[in-house]
Amino acid sequence: GKAKKPGVVYLATVPPYMKPQKLRNLLEVHGKILRLYLEPEDETVWKKRKKAGGNSKRKYTEGWIQFEKKKDAKKVALMLNGQQIGGKKRNFYYYDTWNLKYLSGFKWEHLTEKMLYESKTRQARLRAEIAKT
């Protein structure tokens, strides 16, 4: 038979302080998740907030979720986008809204390439800053 193609959903905004495992638990009910990646907020932003006495937990800015089946990925994006996360009333994320988009033709490799490129440019930028001092 035809090999099942995985599908990737993009999470444009991650609810404050939501951890990857929590996200997986919330979305896994809609289909098997192969991989999940959340982009951590900028180190300097986090350090500033912590220093100012704010929440020391890390925030994530955006995320990608790879479902085993493309149809599950599509379904999740269609069904949940714009919906309140809800769940139990005491759920910390009750009033947050899902901001999901199905990425057509997106492969996980695209993401790893993007991360490699960004860490390289970040390192280059750091080296440039160090060279200036």
- Kindly estimate the percentage of residues that lie in beta strands according to DSSP: 15-25%
Which structural category fits the helices and strands? alpha+beta
What does the main sheet amount to?
4 strands, antiparallel
Topology as a string of helices (H) and strands (E): EHEHEHEH
Shape label: flat
Radius of gyration: 17 Å
Chain-averaged pLDDT: 90
Count of helical segments?
4
Order of strands across the biggest sheet? Answer: 2-3-1-4
List keywords for this structure.
19% strand, flat, 133 residues, alpha+beta, 4 strands, 40% helix
What does this structure look like?
The chain is α+β, with helices and mostly antiparallel strands and 133 residues long. It is built from four helices and four strands. It has a four-stranded antiparallel sheet with strand order 2-3-1-4, covered by helices on one side.
Task: Please outline what is shown here.
With 133 residues, the protein is of the alpha+beta class. Helix content is 40%, strand content 19%.
List the helices and strands and how they pair.
Layout: E1 7-11, H1 20-27, E2 33-40, H2 43-51, E3 60-67, H3 70-80, E4 100-103, H4 108-132
Antiparallel strand pairs: 1-3, 1-4, 2-3
